Amino acid sequence: MTWTTGFWHGLKDDFVAALNQAYRDGGWWRNLVEATHKDGDLFIAIRDNYLNAYWRGASLMKVGYRAGELKGEVHYKYLLHPSFGSPYLNVGPDGRVDLPESQALLMSDISDIAALKAAATPYTGGEKQGVHDIIKCNAGVIDTEITLGGRDQDDNVTAPRLDFAVLQDRDDVARLVFFEAKQFSNKEIRANGAQTPKVAEQIDTYATLLTQHREVLEESYRRVFENFLALKGLAGSHTVRDELMRAVLDGRKRLEIDTQPRLVIFGFDQDQKLGRVWKPHRDKLEELLGAQNVLLKGKSGDFRRGISVL
Asked: What is the pTM of this model?
């Protein structure tokens, strides 16, 4: 299959200036940025002249810049008041729903980030929670939910999506490494007989895209580094990562796109890890992807081995 991509991540200068002014002024943008530092639960990802704020894998908010103004977009499900009583509403004999006043059901101000996170709680968990745990404990994470695909040879819309990318310090090179994460219970990491596990096919597709578009990825992520270092409240949040990004931008280190994604597997106990049922599947994954590219840890919390070298 032939793939194309319209990949670009980076913010324009006027957008960065507007974000910095909003940070100085206070309000919802500053609250959002400060929430990324408070407990490390939020991650702000830079897209193609917009931002996504993630919490436990849920995109709480999209932030854009149009007609000289910051514009936020929030899914209505994240605006449900977490303190609103029963989630059930009464239905009359005529089928009409007894709707409460909108101000009782929906938040009208997104400045309360804690309330947004509480409203998003039912939509998180599983693999999303695991990826969140990994991002939280690895300061070198640069991006998450990374969509590489555009259209295939039949002009069908496609969206291969890697879970996160990490900037690693390797002597004179800053290496950007991409990761696909799967929970142990996910059927995509298993295949019987001579069949290929679906996750191995996914990673092969990612590797092809990363190889084909290495140059645009390098250029794009340089812009992302500039943005992170220029944004008030985000610059300085991870001092070692910031220094590595500066080293790339001033030429002290070469940026290298690692075109072989790693597979991260979590969510198992010792018996499952050593069990005879799992061993053939693990052996197959290591044969197809390389043993060094298959990373396993029972719990997703504090998962750093093979991910963070900052």
From this structure: 0.89
